[in-house]
Amino acid sequence: TLGTVYNISTNGVWNLPGDLTIHGDVDFDTQYYVAAVAGNDVDMDGFIDDLAGVNISISEGVPVTFLETPTATITEDATICEGMEATIQVDFTGSPNYNFEIALDGVPQGPITDVATATYTTQVTAAGIYTIIDVDNTYCAGSIAGAAEIIVNPLPTAAIGINGEICSGDDYDFDITLTGTAPWDMIEGYEDGASITSTTLPPDFTGTV
What we know:
Blueprint: E1 31-34, E2 37-39, E3 56-58, E4 62-65, E5 71-75, E6 78-81, E7 86-93, E8 98-104, E9 107-115, E10 119-124, E11 128-136, E12 143-146, E13 148-153, E14 157-161, E15 175-179, E16 184-189, E17 195-201
Parallel strand pairs: 5-12, 6-13
Antiparallel strand pairs: 1-4, 2-3, 5-7, 7-10, 8-9, 8-11, 11-13, 14-15, 16-17
């Protein structure tokens, strides 16, 4: 006799809804068996009269696993300094294992395959917009979403220009040249390295303190 019957077809074709709710609730990533059954159809309605009876013939079951269509979403914007690394994250739903590819400003960066976990992270150093090109789980093509923008700022530099002697009690303007991305945090110190003050300079700083 048969066990739980989930669906019946008289022509060998099954059209299953996306949530797999048919004659019983079928779970994703669980193995089921499809079998051909021959038996009596006394009332000629196209279906075997008694699937639980003894007067039926059942073929060997063919194993079938229903996979949930995968999705992949990329996130984690970041601003870093030159030479540092940023972490971008891809979150998956659906049946693993996942195969996908990340693009930087639309340029593919190479396939990533056989990811078994629901979250994938990677370290990057290049500035730009990171997106996902495609995702699948070998059998089912999925959907993609999201983007991660990485901004890379150049390392800051500071140069101080000193010209002449300073008399005791006089004020003196030091010309300071800064590069990089404002605002800057600057520590002013004596020649022997002793710290005097720490100053945050505004983005419109022009050069004299």
